[in-house]
Design brief:
40% helix; N-terminal domain of TfIIb; alpha+beta; 3 helices; binds zinc ion
């Protein structure tokens, strides 16, 4: 009795996975057919464009030099304490001191 239920649940979960895969495949296929038309209303989070950093991630990021919070400006995370700018590539912040040094702009420093 109990085992039967577990097997049933397993089957259901398996079917669910298959269904999700079918829907995903369908969406990928139809994405090619209806490329610029997004009339379905469901816009994917990553639509081939540039990815942005989530506010949650931004909140925990800090300049590796002075541990001060950084601000997202264009494709850079800017530290207004030392003027270093850290590039963001494909949504991944490159928080390296040498990268920050490369893009450092002292006019960004706010006292
Ligand atoms: Zn800094």
């Amino acid at each position: 009795m109990k085992i039967g239920r577990i097997v049933g649940l397993g089957l259901l979960a398996g079917l669910g996975v298959v269904a999700v895969r079918v829907v995903k495949q369908y969406r990928e296929d139809s994405a090619f057919d209806l490329a610029p038309v997004s009339a379905t209303g469901s816009t994917p989070a990553v639509s081939g464009g540039k990815r942005t950093i989530s506010p949650e991630l931004l909140e925990i990021l800090a300049c590796p030099v002075d541990k001060q919070p950084v601000k997202l400006e264009d494709d850079f995370l800017v530290c207004h304490t030392c003027g270093r700018k850290y590039p963001v590539e494909d949504g991944i912040p490159i928080m390296l001191i040498e990268e920050g040094d490369k893009h450092r702009d002292e006019s960004l420093i706010q006292q």
